[in-house]
Design goal:
Radius of gyration: 19 Å
Low-confidence stretches: none
Number of helices: 10
Number of strands: 11
CATH topology of the largest domain: Rossmann fold
Bound molecules: magnesium ion
Length: 273
C-alpha cells in the first residue's frame, strides 16, 4: 500500500507568521525515510516550493499554484506519462484577458492586484521581503490580489469568475485568480493512476484554509491544522476520518501526522489480526 501525505504549506506545515518548519524538520525526514510520499500542494510557486525542498534537504514531487501544475512526477512510483498532462493552469496574461472581458466593473473595484501595489505593500500583504517576495510574485499560473469588498460581493465575484472558466481562491493572506483548477485535481488523478498501476494509495491530506477544502475532502484522512485566532476549518463533505490538531503549525502538522499514522496502524492491525 502506498501512503501519501498531501500537504498545504503556509499555516499548515510552515508556521503562519514565520513560515518556519525547523522544529519538525527531522521528523519530516524520518517520515520520508520510513517510505511516506510527501507531496506539498500549495498556492506557492514552483520556485518557492523548490526553495522549501532545498531547506528540507529532500527532492519531493509537488503541486504548485493551487493545483495548476504537478512537478517532479518522476519521483512517483508510476509508469511514465507525457509531461504535458502535468500543467492545467493558464498563464497570467491569459487570465487577465479573461478577467478584463468577463468580470463586472462593480466587482473589479474591490480587487487590488498585488503587481500594481508598491513593493512595501506587497511585502505587508504576503509577509515576505527581498528574494522571498520576488519568488512569491513570480507566478506562472495565477495572479494574487487583495479583496476589500463585502462578503456578498466576494460570492458574486467567485460566481462570475467560475462562469468565465476562472477560479478565485482565498488563502490565508491574499486571494488568487487562476484557471478553474483547485488543489483536489491532481489528488484525484494521482489516485486513479495508482489504481491503474495496480497499487492501492492512501492519501492523508493536511490543510488550514478554505483553498484546502477540496483536497481535504478528496483525501482518505483529512488533517486540519488550526490557524492562530481562527476557528479550525470545517468540511461540508468530510472523509470518514478527520483529525483536527490542537496546536498550530508547524507542531500541529506533526501532531496530526502521528495521529493519522496510528489510526492507519490500528486499521492494518484489525485487517491482519
Ligand atoms: Mg494554508
Amino acid at each position: 500500500m502506498g501512503l501519501m501525505f498531501m500537504t498545504d504549506l503556509d499555516g499548515t506545515l510552515l508556521g503562519h507568521d514565520d513560515f518556519s518548519f525547523a522544529s519538525i524538520r527531522d521528523d519530516i525526514l524520518a517520515l520520508l525515510g520510513a517510505g511516506v510520499t510527501i507531496v506539498p500542494n500549495s498556492s506557492k510557486t514552483s520556485r518557492e516550493i523548490s526553495v522549501f525542498c532545498d531547506e528540507l534537504g529532500a527532492s519531493l514531487p509537488f503541486i504548485c499554484e493551487n493545483g495548476a501544475a504537478l512537478v517532479n512526477r518522476q519521483l512517483f512510483d508510476l509508469p511514465p506519462t507525457p509531461a504535458s498532462a502535468d500543467v492545467v493552469g493558464l498563464a497570467p496574461d491569459r487570465l487577465m484577458a479573461l478577467w478584463d472581458h468577463h468580470i463586472e466593473a462593480s466587482l473589479k473595484r474591490h480587487c487590488h492586484f498585488l503587481a500594481d501595489l508598491p513593493e512595501a505593500e506587497q511585502a505587508w500583504h504576503l509577509g515576505l521581503r527581498g528574494a522571498a517576495l520576488k519568488q512569491a510574485m513570480a507566478r506562472d499560473y495565477s495572479v494574487p490580489f487583495v479583496f476589500t469588498g463585502p462578503e456578498p460581493a466576494f460570492a458574486g465575484l467567485r460566481q462570475q469568475a467560475a462562469t468565465a472558466g476562472l477560479a478565485v481562491k482565498r488563502g490565508g493572506r491574499v486571494c488568487n485568480l487562476s484557471a478553474g483548477h483547485d488543489k483536489s485535481g491532481f489528488a484525484q488523478s494521482l489516485r486513479a493512476e495508482y489504481q491503474a498501476a495496480g497499487s492501492e494509495l492512501v492519501i492523508v491530506g493536511f490543510g488550514d484554509g478554505d483553498n484546502d477544502i477540496g483536497m481535504l475532502e478528496t483525501s482518505d484522512i483529512a488533517c486540519v491544522v488550526p490557524r492562530p485566532g481562527h476557528p479550525p476549518l470545517t468540511l461540508a463533505s468530510p472523509p470518514p476520518t478527520v483529525i483536527t490538531a490542537r496546536r498550530a503549525a508547524p507542531e500541529g502538522w506533526l501532531e496530526a501526522a502521528r495521529q493519522a499514522l496510528s489510526i492507519l496502524e490500528c486499521k492494518r492491525g484489525d485487517q491482519h489480526g
